[in-house]
Amino acid sequence: MAEWEPDLRLTFDDSSSWVCENNGRCIVSHNNYVHIVWSDFRSQGAEIYCKRSTDYGQSWEADRRLTFDSVAGPSSGMAAIAISGAYLHLVWRDTRDGNREIYYKRSSDNGLTWSNDVRLTNDPGISGLPSITAEDSMVYLVWQDDREGNFEIFFKYSTNWGEDWSDDIRLTNDPGVSAYPTIAVQDSLLHLAWHDNRDGNAEIYYKRSTNWGISWSPDTRLTEDPDLSGLPTIALSGSYVHLCWMDRRDGNGEIYYKWSSDHGLTWSVDRRLTNAPYKSSYPSLVAEGKNLHLAWYDFRDGNAEIYYKNSTDQGVNWSSDLRLTNSSGTSQWPSIALADTMLNLVWMDDRDGNWEIYYKRNPNGNVYLNQERSPKITPLLLRIDNRIEIDGLPSGSRLYLFDPLGRRLNTLQVKNQRAVVPLPYSAGLYLLVIETPISVTNQWIVVIK
Hints:
Immunoglobulin-like, Sialidase_sf, mainly beta, 0% helix, Sialidase domain-containing protein, Neuraminidase, 449 residues
């Protein structure tokens, strides 16, 4: 694996520049584009800024201010971004209306132009810590909101690239605090994690939707320990759901991990990933194929520094911790993104006397994907008396067929690099997961009569 390149300072002003916390993402990448968003105090109050690279992070365009609402007090912060092709979807918390509300704007041309600001919430409570994800024309948003008297997780969605939005939908209902929601989507399956103190201390909870957010599973408690579990980050790869969080069960904050191989139906045991004498916190996780990439900030060196580790086998084994920053200041709140072989990392850093945005990249940090041999799928004849034939599968591959509720129907072995998948007898939407030794591929199947 190629090495990480040197730190690159992206902002140069005499005021603070802040990235969002780890439940949202402040960096996204697609093909040759890399986009970063943050809140910046160079104006009278905090405003949302963006910056983009069109050459894989080698060079960067000038800072661009996206909000213009501050007048001695109001502020825009907690900016989070999602990408779907050329569309960028940006959300943030804004106080221009006298209380904290969620606002949105979008770009349909890779960040060249942006829409007007759109207010998405309108209630007397505090709306904050948004997390957004997108897939094709679907855009999904979660945030924490105390309109009911305590913080609960709320959700809304758009089916047309952010042009129109659903009503607010309350996803949690308990007497404790539900906070720090993080959401991810793949193949129309939505996965949500947050931390919740309904049990007397903060624990990690999870729920999912298999129908684009129309209905949701019950809340599932994923951690059970006497101390705080919080700040979750979630990443998806095929049928795998990967989750990291900060946990204090060991006396100081450490990064923990668990995974599900069946779209969130069942989960592994908790696994401790860091073991340092001081706090490790604010993890950011991404996944593609069997590759996982994790960044966090860590106090083991006497001050906060950015660390990294990775797995190339769906989280079974992990590399040693790798220190990525080395400065006398504080480096914190990393956010990581990948596109093809490229890893992109952004964080906030006060080595220059005030908070600035820093970036670094690893051009071949995700290089294992180049080893993938994509299976050849013959034409899908969508009739219940037909079958799917798949050729070119490497030895050791497995195929799993799931129904619309996520229930596994079949597990198929590969013989002579070939598999035959009988279609279900009932009409409907089915998911075929093709798992090879080095990759996971999803194929939606529509069965009609």
